[in-house]
Amino acid sequence: MAELLDVQHRDPGSRARTAVLRLAHGEVRTPAFVPLATKGVVKGIEPHEVAALGYDMVLGNTFHLFLTPGHELVAEQGGLHEFMRWSGPIITDSGGFQVFSMGHGTVADEIKGRAPTGADRAGAILSIEEEGVRFRSYIDGGERFMAPETSMEVQAALGSDVALAFDECTPFHVDRDYTERSTERTHRWLERCLAWQDAHGRADQVFYAISQGGVHEDLRRGSTRVVAGSRAHGVAIGGSLGAEKAQMYEVVGWATDELERVAPGKPRHLLGIGEIDDLVRGVELGIDTFDCAMPTRLGRHGMAIVPDPERRWRVDLTKGRWKHAREPIMDDCPCPACAGGYSRAYLHYLFGARELTALRLVTLHNLSYVARLMADLRAAVAAGTLAEAAAAVRAGASPRA
Amino acid sequence: MAELLDVQHRDPGSRARTAVLRLAHGEVRTPAFVPLATKGVVKGIEPHEVAALGYDMVLGNTFHLFLTPGHELVAEQGGLHEFMRWSGPIITDSGGFQVFSMGHGTVADEIKGRAPTGADRAGAILSIEEEGVRFRSYIDGGERFMAPETSMEVQAALGSDVALAFDECTPFHVDRDYTERSTERTHRWLERCLAWQDAHGRADQVFYAISQGGVHEDLRRGSTRVVAGSRAHGVAIGGSLGAEKAQMYEVVGWATDELERVAPGKPRHLLGIGEIDDLVRGVELGIDTFDCAMPTRLGRHGMAIVPDPERRWRVDLTKGRWKHAREPIMDDCPCPACAGGYSRAYLHYLFGARELTALRLVTLHNLSYVARLMADLRAAVAAGTLAEAAAAVRAGASPRA
Question: If you measure CA to CA, which chain A residue comes closest to B119?
């Protein structure tokens, strides 16, 4: 069997690496951003458009697809790839984050850009026990139960290329004691996930464990060692990563430091992180894949990604200052919105008129921006120029790809 | 100057004809359906996609664009073509229908598929006088005034290829006396539109008068003779066309009968009609161009056009019966939704999940269906086989183009 992660280049000045992640439905060129197809669709965008933007993989969500249309229906329809017409690799989040989001209102969500949606909040946790989590569906109000085994079963039915362990995503505001107990439970749940995989796992699906431990160095390093040393094929870094970016980078650094030692060849996914500077730093810290709602969610709210570090790489097209602006979102941008010649004035108007096309165009722009950034970073690692490339991005350079 | 309407084929068994309508921004192959870009965008669809489906012209709306973003802004941005990035011909409705829709709740709207939208209804007519109509904006609640000259000025600023006369769209439920007086006022308003065109008209814009007269044969024939005999370059058939399809066909027949006599070479547009059987009959009655919200509005509500005359050529994908349906909307349909392999089950699920992609895919299918139908009808007229083609459509044949 070919290696899961075929590392091709290493940056001498950081933990960054390029690789080809070989999955059942194709290869992912890493480091890579993974757009969200939470409910089985990248909101407003067709799969062939996602691929044309340069993406190799998308992320589906176990929790949402479990509630509707249901994993049995997706399986009956030939699996998630066939159902949503995406022929490339799919990673599925385990549902842990969404289930626990119904109970936690978190600072971490905000910093991670993973704030629960209105739909998530409408549900409610009924009980968290060793066996699993009982909650109320935001779809029909019915009572549902999700255990590690449920999550594995759902992900197997969806047929994703990468399944994630069912974990408790510990929020930022809980104390060390809660975090420690929660992390230990996540480790016990990992064993149950692995046992399910041993008994029922699909040959065409790989399985990633999730590192928890919050922002406590010993817990985070300890959790990372535990999950990296398990039989899981890869590791995702989840849970609370801190109240601010500097702390998040430190926490991720602890995790990848342990991964370098314990399991250097296993692929590493960073959950829910995707702002421009975070992607650059994540690559330097040795992350292979990232997912985040940010590019698509910002796009739906009229926020376009632009090379402007002082404004968090964002411009808000709904602001009145763009009413007369004839320029595109970005000059020399090859995305469908900019190359299509749509002006900021027109996009501003369309957002005001609540026209769907506005959401779609800015989402396309944002996804194009992030895809090109990741291609730049891959090229820089391959060329041994990551330090210069990262500095240029931080100074406000446009993607070159 | 080349002829505006270059008639190429005539059907020996009906008034149907094929032609090339030569406008400032290009040619329209007729008979043609004209998709609505009411607010300067075909909802959810980009202009290059509209063109790729086979459409030559779109319709913008004077009333909506007058209120937001305003014709001055559109003019400042280089005109509607540049603003919305549609380089082909544009026809603009005059705003008469929308202004009067705020006052009338009509049976005619229903039969014509031109029911006022929620936005239209939120406004209110303050007064209708000989000078013009005063109303309250649904955007900002402010008082606005629209007269024939206003409509002409707005349409000139938008820079459409075809401007329509400002008329009162008489509803079905008013009496003959009201219809007669309204039609006479529409004729006086036509003179004012023509006077404005004489003084300020753009060389790159042609002007269509609108036939009113409701469902009264003498009024409808009389109005058609008046407007067809005017200096207007073309004629649109508007107002109430009846409470049911048979009556609508009769009324349109009176109008095109008069047009054949008075102005056989002028292009004819039928306002707000676009169901499948109506398009076939309209072509037989000698209509050159049609506009209607139907294909796009149905699409946004989950209704896909299919070759099923017994169900008004519609299937409602939001119904539970499609939950497990693996087939596409239509077999052998080349539209992006069907050729893309999306199943009815997936579209059903996406509508339930309120995902934008659902609206977009079914809109694309519906527009593709209608474009191909019109191409079939043009080919049939050219080949002298319209009677057979029309019978096949009525019997449930799929478009062949």
Answer: A353
Residues B285 and B334 grouped into a single domain: no
Higher pLDDT, B106 or B384: B384
**Residue range A282-334, pLDDT digits in tens:** 999 999 999 999 999 999 999 999 999 999 999 999 999 999 999 999 999 99
Query: How many structural domains is chain A composed of?
Result: 2
CB pairs under 8 A between A and B: 98
**In terms of domains, do A284 and A324 share one?**
no
Residue B317 with chain A: CB contacts under 8 Å: none
- CATH number of the domain within which B120 lies: 3.20.20.105
Asked, for residue B329, whether it belongs to a domain, the answer is: yes
Contacts of A48 in chain B (CB under 8 A): 340
Mind telling me how many Å the CA of B77 is from chain A's nearest CA? 7
Indicate if B145 and B35 belong to the same structural domain.
Answer: yes
On whether both B110 and B132 belong to a single domain, the answer is: yes
Q: How far is A142 from chain B (nearest CA, A)?
A: 17
> Same structural domain for residues A105 and A253?
yes
A291 is catalytic: yes
- The confidence band for B172, taking pLDDT boundaries of 50, 70 and 90, is confident
Out of B77, B336, B356, name the one closest to residue A356 (CB): B356
Question: Which of B39, B40, B355 lies at the smallest CB-CB distance from A41?
Answer: B355
SS (H, E, C) chain A: CCCCEEEEEECCCCCCEEEEEEECCEEEEECEEECECCCCCECCECHHHHHHCCCCCEEEEHHHHHHCCCHHHHHHCCCHHHHHCCCCCEEEECCHHHHHHCCCCCHHHHHHCCCCCHHHHHCEEEEECCCCEEEECCCCCCEEEECHHHHHHHHHHHCCCEEECCCCCCCCCCCHHHHHHHHHHHHHHHHHHHHHHHHHCCCCCEEEEEECCCCCHHHHHHHHHHHHCCCCCEEEECCCCCCCHHHHHHHHHHHHHHHHHHCCCCCEEECCCCCHHHHHHHHHCCCCEEECCHHHHHHHCCEEECCCHHHCCEEECCCHHHCCCCCCCCCCCCCHHHHCCCCHHHHHHHHHCCCHHHHHHHHHHHHHHHHHHHHHHHHHHHHCCHHHHHHHHHHCCCCCC
pLDDT > 90: percent of chain B:
87
Which residues of B are part of the catalytic machinery?
Answer: 93, 291
- One domain for residues B329 and B381: yes
Domain boundary, last residue among A292, A318, A348: A292
Model confidence over A348-388: pLDDT tens digits?
999 999 999 999 999 999 999 999 999 999 999 999 999 99
Q: Which listed residue (A56, A109, A161, A291) is catalytic?
A: A291
Residues of B within an 8 Å Cβ radius of A: 39-41, 43-46, 48, 68-69, 73, 76-78, 83-85, 323-324, 326, 336, 340-343, 345-346, 349-350, 352-353, 355-357, 359-361
Contact state of A359 with B359 under an 8 Å Cβ cutoff:
no
Q: How far A50 CA lies from chain B's nearest CA (Å)?
A: 13
Q: Tens of pLDDT along B270-322?
A: 999 999 999 999 999 999 999 999 999 999 999 999 999 999 999 999 999 99
Domain termination residue (choose one: A258, A292, A326): A292
Residue among A43, A78, A343 minimizing CB distance to B77 = A343
Is this complex's ipTM strictly greater than 0.90?
Answer: yes
Q: Do A355 and B43 touch (CB under 8 A)?
A: yes
Q: Is residue B297 part of a domain?
A: no
User: In this structure, is residue A298 part of a structural domain?
Assistant: no
Is A77's CB within 8 Å of B343's CB?
A: yes
- Determine whether the interchain pair A44/B357 forms a contact, defined as Cβ–Cβ distance below 8 Å: yes
A233 and A357 assigned to the same domain? no
pTM over 0.90, yes/no: yes
Domain of residue B319: give its range: 303-395
Residue B178 within a domain = yes
Q: Residue A243: its pLDDT value, please? A: 86
